[in-house]
Batch of 2 targets.
Target 1
Amino acid sequence: MKKYWVLGLALILLGNLLVLLQVYGNRQDVSGKMRLTERELTMPYGYRRENSGITLQLQWRMSYLEQPDDDDDFYRRRAFPLSKVQQEEWGLASEPARQGYRSARARTAYVVLEYDGEAHRKALAIQQARVEEWRGLETTEQNQKGLERRQNVYKHVLRGSRLYAVDVGLDRAALEQRYSSARHLILPAVVRPRYTKDEGWRLNVEHLQVASVYVPRPYRDRLAGLEGRRRQEQSPRFVVDVQWGARGEPWVAGLELLTVSE
Amino acid sequence: MGSMSENSKDSAQQRVDQIQSFQRELQQLQAESVFELSDTQREQLGSYHQALLSQLKQRHDIDTSEQGRQLSLGMRVVSLLGALALAASVFFFFYQFWGYLHTWAQVLLLASFPVLGLVVTLLLASREAAGYFSKLAAFTCFACFVLNISMLGQIFNIAPSARALLLWGAFALLLAYACQLQLLLYAGLLCLMVFVVFELCHWRGFDWSSAFDRPEDLLLPSLAIFLLPLFWRQVATGFAAAYRVMGALGFLFTLWVMAHLGSASYLLWDRAVIEGIYELLGFAFAAAGIWLGIRQRWSDTVNVGSLFFLFFLFSKFVDWWWDWMPKYLFFFVLGLTAILALLVFKRVRRGLEVQEALQ
């Protein structure tokens, strides 16, 4: 029985130590920091009777890298197009183009998120132009419904997250050289190449490796009075200083409640 | 009194069952006037068995009656349900209060749960002959360790990693061997098999979330687990069978998946060819499992092999007939196939009995 004591305690201590060492290593080097509001960091859904912890979800969108089609769905995650050079960089040129849902395996790469920059302004301009386009159409019931949909999307862009994915790559250093402004964040993400006959190879950003951030005490106490997610027409209720470490894992460095509209 | 082989509860229970079968057979022989013991012999045998039974019952808390056996089975079920309920309680307890604690308190509490669980489990295992409470404690301890690592990941926003599975798998195996608990052994083996597949994917430069895009990665780990008892003798009852069942399930399930999903293969051939090859391999390995199980008297391997042989057969029937055959006829053919399988097994069993009688 003695060996089970020793091995069991060793495993528990080892597990905890490894995790804490990883956290320490991550926080030694701040690779990015940003001040984000409730537009980009949303509260969990629903009433939190059984869960006293608060974890905020990072919201981001894909930027418009090409001119969108008329029937473009803003909410659908578009994929990054790939040039021939980029295809070779990803090792895709020689891969047979298998049709179907999973043509290639997901990899960890780095995605560049731009905050309140050109990508957000472009998205706003495109959606505004769409609204104007539909306003100019003949007044029928169908056109009225179409106009309402377009107006909802425009409001969503106007009041929603201002974080847009503008680039993706395997080489973090190269991306850091190209996107060195404080407006850009480079975060690890899971990316899957996919191939179709019409579009060739494209990259789907499936999800960020860490897309949520736990709010520790004492910051959690400031959010305790807020119930559920903010409605679209509401102004953001708080602003958070988030820092990202060497491994792209975030933590909350500051949090303030907002008392006036942004 | 009693031999060294009755040192474990399972071997003690086997000896008790053996004694009771012997007593019942002796009574039957006496009733049919085939065999008669003298009074002295009967008295000697009776007092020997009585003393042995009471000694084994005292040392290992085993069942000496059919009612006792039924009750033990019920107690095992209750122990499992109790463990699941306690594990859920630990999770929800932590979720209820963690938000009110500072980070250092959360870390301390999370680490102390499995340590406390380990202390209670090993104390109970060393003092309790029957093992019901120690098994319940072992499950709860395992749940606490899973909670420990996963909640640390949430608190510090750590990117999900397959390496947690290695820790959990190792801990589950440790508790399984300490308490001779088969269910934790299954859990531990599952964690380790999945970890190996995730790590293979990671070494190849892919994200672990796409590990099962290539199910063939599960073949070698499953085979290794199946063969492990040949090199590492398992003393606890049921442990060798657990390795064989996990290994056979993993291996045959992968073959079955590949027989329907050729596009997920590493092979760059035509999809229909890949699926055909895996179908043939599936039938062959399932049949080989049945043959090996009969030869080695591994009923677990025979059962898994038979199950997958039928899966492959029924999948083939669906491919051939589902689209055009009326459903009543399709299921009638399935039923006839099951009857044919029973007749074949009956014939094989008769052949084995004849062989045993000749030996």
Note: Chain A has six helices and twelve strands.
Target 2
Amino acid sequence: MADLPRTITEAAQWLQSFRITSVELTQALLERSHAAQDTVAAFITINDEAALEAARRADADFKQGIVRGPLQGVPVAVKDILATVDAPTTANSRVLDPKWGDRADATAVRKLREAGAVITGKLGLHEFAIGWPDPETGFPIPKNPWDLSRTPGGSSSGTGAAVAAGLIYGGLGTDTGGSIRGPSAYCGISGIKATFGRVSKEGCVPLGYSLDNVGPMARTVRDCALMLQVLAGHDPADPSSADVPVPDMTAELTGSLAGVRVGVPHEYFFTVPELDTEVKSAVLAAIEQMRLAGATVIEVAIPHAAEARIAQWVIMIAEAYAYHERDLQQRPELYGQYTRDTIQTGAFFTAADYIQAQRLRSLVKSECREALANVDVLVTPTMVGLAPRFDEFDPNAMLNRPSFTGIWNLTGFPALSVNCGFSSSGLPIGMQIIGRPFAEPTVFRVGDAYQQMTDWHTRVPELAKEAASHE
Amino acid sequence: MNDAGDIDVAATVDRILAVAGLSVTAERRERLVRAYPQMLSMVRQLRIPELRDLEPSVIYSVEERS
């Protein structure tokens, strides 16, 4: 089947007009997923039987005129850190007790199923959502479909790779310091870390309790909005779930930037020496394009952005260490090397270090609220550089490297990554759009308007084009 | 937080590992000994004057569910 829809939005139109059935669509994507396991290796589990059963139910509903929404019948997949009733959950680790996953779907997964989505499997990730892949653990290591010698980013590596390679239309990732936005940037797709508490974390193995977010990754901003519409909402089973109304996430997708005020914090986000020159140029060009399309660009400042990176790291590692303390004491050999080494450093932070980080968190939240006081969104690069090669990884560099993403976990503000160009070597570049708390519709408005005037998001890796041509 | 130059880094790392009940390889211990001054330097950057009157973002409300 050479001709398939390219996005959730398109798939919904095809399905609802009976141009294609969910079974046909799901079978095609399952075949692609299996065929790509030796190269992209996005999945830990591909669940053909359950997926086709869900597809048959979706088709039966369509025939009876039952339409639950745009996700009905659309193949998606889930980062293997979220519980699913029909597949094991591993967190990409030999450490996680299999009994942990012997339970109901995570709330976010349940919501996807209730919306009629077809879940094709569980996607690879960095072990426990942190660290770096270690081949010794025996799990498949997802590769970047744009260049298989490079990482798709992490920790939602499988989700980013699967969407970019056309194996799924959307997927769930998690984000504690950039783990949705990093893979989205490196893989040339869209992904949002919504406001902290917007999406339930129930049924997700924790990394940093006060930083974790579950969120959607898809080819387009519109698709992300459609997914977030399903995922969002108060969940009494999640103590950090925000009890706020869920707006219409697509209400502001007008395509217009007229009157939009874009704040640009040049200091730090565009001035750190580690920032790749092509990344900087691409994001500045995107901002200029927005200005020409009617947006007003305003310089803003976040004075302690550099310290925010440290605070986020200390909080994340301390919280992760608390969760893993017993396993690190009793069976450290089961962890992958880099995950174990990273989380172990939590033993070296004191209680006072953690509280100081939380005090700095209060300061940075205040500065970010101030930065957004007179603008609608902020725009920064998503990542400091391009997708690194696997053989370039330096574990000691992680502590020193600047981060443009962790600050938005620290503050809890929504942050979306969209593709804004490609490097001279053909690697995707991501732009990050940040909004006020719970203002996801405005964040989506800016990202979608940018995508309506550019075509970066329509580009597909050669590997995916070749796979489609053989169908 | 003391400057790393005032302390015996290796002994401090060994003590922290022992108290935490963590066993590490010799190679990993060496990496930690090299990294520990960097960690100290990093957390020292969190101690800034602007935080003097700020409360941490972990204050619980009595209305919060336990």
Note: Chain A touches chain B through 33 residues (CB under 8 Å).
